[in-house]
């Protein structure tokens, strides 16, 4: 049960009554008795909360930044009308800070034997799954003095997918892909082995691609066009260990890596390649395998929705074993990890030959723009030391990248905003040079 | 709502793969909807609260039995109606048998009113009286011509009631000889006395009896009229029921208390407020009564308000938060370490190395050879106006001497780099 502000106000007004008319114990008692009678009457005439039936419908999946509407249907099977204040409680990150109170509370009236629907609008601020907590109903009596209160648990889950903000880069990269494919007039010859078609020579074409046999058969000079190889296998590996937990700007490194992985997957699946995903730190956190192009991105974002950085050191040996198991034939392995010196040198470098021996390896890392900002700092002594420390860190990263490159690994190191297009460009470059 | 699948086919369409949350079957009419209520049933309430109820019961039983079996024997001490070991019913009855009327009073006002030349005032516990009550008793007893018997008054009480007398030491209660010529004591002979011992420097006419180590445990001081007197005993033992028939206790008690036909037996109590200060009024007495009762009602309203605000609309929802560690934290920490250690040499080398690495591609030196002095300097001298030794000392010189030199070095390196950039912009 609960009492309302109206009861408190009446009790305060009772002070006037007691003070002016009945300045005795009796006055206080009379006011208390009247209030108590009102409260008891209200409690007797308020609809019971326990027999209410609650049911949910609504969105189950949204992308971060969008809003989800979840409906809650309240059926009142009793004989008393329900005048209720309802709180549909969700975890705090389901709403922008400061708006959760207004967003979660509803007033509604359900006449006896009927049902009403209320709508809760969620605007999650983080990726992941949001599970409905409890629905608390405060059923007010007709006088508005007291209320019966109870809670129901009506399960519902809204999965918040990664926002995929880098999809704005997709059209331009697809255009580049079509250029590679020889479908446009501007032929950019790929080094792949798959023969596409013959067409007439245009000045500017590579003379090495002239097909003399075909030229001899017809009156004009014919060139062969090639198209880059299709149906290659790409395995995107997300390192979800401690290096992915560091915040760059306002989001952990992992979120930027997810964005880059999504753009690469979207591009590669349009290019006709098969894309698999593996998220690993000390064990497999997510795995997507053998999806068709149409099914790929939904599977990926669903698998990514629940990924969180783990505060453990990644197990590079296990990771490589997982990769080798999932990629039996030659593949492009895109490893999204950090370029910090110690984890790479102690973990990844010793086992890297196992990967580079059989696969093409691309390492992508999220750089921190804060380092560049610190390296530019000048003016006072603190700033100079900051700059020196930042230069030291950048040099170490560069050395790590060079050591990886010496193993034949392509390294992409870019800040969060430019990592997705940079990774996509690196993929296109590999494809154009026929290294897939 | 999220994006429509048709409008942007390359985007994942979230609705296509709903991860079916565990939802209850639609509760249409006729189908029994599952009970989702979280309110505890009566059975759960009983299961939850029975532990506390049992604990409360045990506490009650224990407290009751403790009260029954361990109640103190000092209950009713020196009460003339109490037949306990430490009561004094025996003395009172003996006195009444000898024709002395015994009146029991519990307030200072009654005690003061009952004093007179033909009455004895017995104060059983003077230490329980406050300064004001002591004053009232003193004033009433001083010149009444009657007798006042004080039992074991402490230093404060005795100095107020008998100015000049002081309680200085304590001794065990023992069988003592009178050792004085007070008629009552001489007739009684040995008695159980001791307890508090008194000193009376310069009090005229005082009689000291039953001394321990030279200090009396019974003291008689006559008042100024010569009719009345005050008797101080260091211990209540002679009046206790169980001691009364030992030695000369009974004789002493009867003589001390039976010298007047009327005995006022004053048992001080804590709830006694008969001696008020009539001139003092507090704020609430000055208010009209309506205000006072209105304030009480406002206090009730405050409690109701607290109850209203205290009731939460459902529990607080918690959620595990992701860690918030800035990726650059290690680097920032390293900068602070440099600063604390004044690592000028290391900082300067880091800045120089970075500048060399940036300069090398500008002047056509391979990045891998950027750190070799001769190659880089040879390539640089062609492009910068500054003399070669100066450039060499800037890029490869000794560590800066002090902090300002380090700041200058950073600026000079920036200037060198900027001049090369300018040259690049101008020349091609």
UniProtKB/TrEMBL annotation, chain A:
Domain of life: Bacteria
TM region(s), chain numbering: 7-23, 29-49
Keywords attached to this entry: Membrane, Transmembrane, Transmembrane helix
Transmembrane among keywords: yes
Lineage: Bacteria, Bacillati, Actinomycetota, Actinomycetes, Kitasatosporales
Pfam families attached to this UniProt entry: DUF58
Domain DUF58: 198-375
Protein name: DUF58 domain-containing protein
